[in-house]
């Protein structure tokens, strides 16, 4: 059915990353700078969204574990050097300037990084009207936030319950369609899934709550 929806809030994250693009482009061409960029991004996420710290650390460790030791050792040496520490400071300032320490923006950017670094496999949502690809994308975009709320690193399951359609709604207005129950470490957290213009995504009020905004 519909595709996952990040809504207008995601535009802020996209613009923020675009503002940082010159530094990001440089990092892509320089292994040392790329390594510093990833470390600085992780530090920024932990400062702006401390609830995600455990997942950031776990995902970053998984990313580093995928780098051959003969490449990782010199990268770490550079990061510990005076020049590396100086560059790290500048990169960190650039990242902070780009996102402004905004928790809502971090709820997009840091979740993307956690998924990119750690490549976690999340369970498919059960009982949802969404097709499997849309469901998978939305679970991935919410799971780190839900896990932070549940203080757990492994998601056990996601179950969906339909919500009766409202009698009427304004064009372009977000329409609640489902409630998703995230389970982990013996605890659960429920969020709303809205539909807007044929696209689905986390309800804005739940995004704001989970981001600690």
Please render the helix and strand layout as text:
Elements: E1 3-4, H1 9-19, H2 21-29, H3 31-48, H4 53-65, H5 69-80, H6 82-99, H7 103-118, H8 132-150, E2 157-162, E3 175-184, E4 187-196, E5 199-202, H9 204-211
Parallel strand pairs: 1-5
Antiparallel strand pairs: 2-3, 3-4, 4-5
Q: Average pLDDT value?
A: 87
- Percent helix, as a range, is 55-70%
Q: How many alpha or pi helices? A: 9
Main sheet: strands, sense, barrel: 5 strands, mixed
Percent range for β-strand residues: 15-25%
Please tell me what the overall shape is: elongated
Low-confidence stretches: 1-25
Q: Which strand order spans the largest sheet, edge to edge or round the barrel?
A: 1-5-4-3-2
Q: What is the chain-wise order of helices and strands? A: EHHHHHHHHEEEEH
- Judged by helices, strands and strand pairing, the structural class is alpha+beta
* Rg on CA atoms, Å: 19 Å
End-to-end C-alpha gap:
31 Å
How many individual β-strands?
5
